[in-house]
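Structure Section — protein described below
Tokens — whole-number codes for backbone shape
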Amino acid sequence: MSAPRLVHLTTTDMSLDWLLRPQLEAFADAGYEVIGMSAPGPHVNALRASGIEHVAIDSLTRSISPARDLRAFRDLVSKFREIRPDIVHTHNPKPGIMGRIAARIAGVPVVVNTVHGLYALPEDRLLKKTLVYGLERVASSFSDAELLQNPEDLDVMRRLGVPHSKMTVLGNGIDLSRFDPGSMAGVRSRIRGELGLGPETIVVGVVGRLVWEKGYRSIFDAAKLLDDLNCVIVVVGPCEPDKSGAVDASAMEAAEADGVRFLGRRDDMAELYAAFDVYALASHREGYPRSAMEASAMGLPVVATDIRGCRQVVADGVTGTLVPARDGRAMAMALRELIESAPVRKAMGAAARMRAEERFDDRRVVETTMRTYEWLLGRSPLEATAAV
């Protein structure tokens, strides 16, 4: 039997590389012909070096542009008809909507979608929920399977009328062998030396794109309230000046004046986590935050907002602390407790690594996804998974 041709569709090549590459490599090792499809970018070479073919859709963009989105939809239909995949697996809100419909119109036999976190939340405005949930309900009628990263989205999808038999809670995972504090001998002192940080300084790490919905107002407010302590907040993530809601340069300058360090985009995340003492995530919206899983796996206590996604990663009071969103004072108080107590940091960090080993292994995600593919291709029965 020839190798099934599998296309994973995302908006950007960064998602294929940073978020999905270990899974894509695992599917290739299992005998699939794997193709990543997205807008072109600087991560294409890394994908190809890993043996993952990339097909560029130049018209795909993160921003909302009706004319360009219509062109992207036509391009997707055309490309699917050209390469004739056996499976199209879509990710992210926009390609998730367009890709499912385009794949079905193009006659793709199997269409799978991963819900990384519904773009609307129950507490959002009615207009936003109506639009997002309406599009999701329509697009889901074009798929064969819906893999939900977060169990909190399951009830919403059911209320939207998505068939129960179509849904599986997938969870999320990371490479625990890469994010392993036991493999970091000597790294902590080296990275701290490169950053000019002394051994006694408590480093609070923050990782995420520099957009306000990642909660940077709370982070910056917390920095002001912690200026009496020997600590520094280090932010890792790219600026996105063209993105709606981007953190502006003046806000970054003000935060730097309060002692916040900005490192920009980095590719050595495991090493950076090894140099941190605490991790903070102040997002307003998450699906199942990878950075918090990575920090937990690296044995860091995590202070995160009490929202969908963060609730699945952080065991409040055990592996970290959950605080209200948009509350810089609460974030500062939780961070202060950890900054001032090495024993608490140590205990929570050890519990965080244990939780990661139990719940965040990406091999489980690959296995669940593979079972779905095999069932839909008619190769074997779909075994019961964690949440159908």
Q: What stands out?
A: The chain has two domains: 5-173+361-376, 181-359. The domain at 181-359 is CATH 3.40.50.2000 (Rossmann fold). The CA atoms of residues 93 and 119 lie 7 Å apart. The first strand starts at residue 5 and ends at 12.
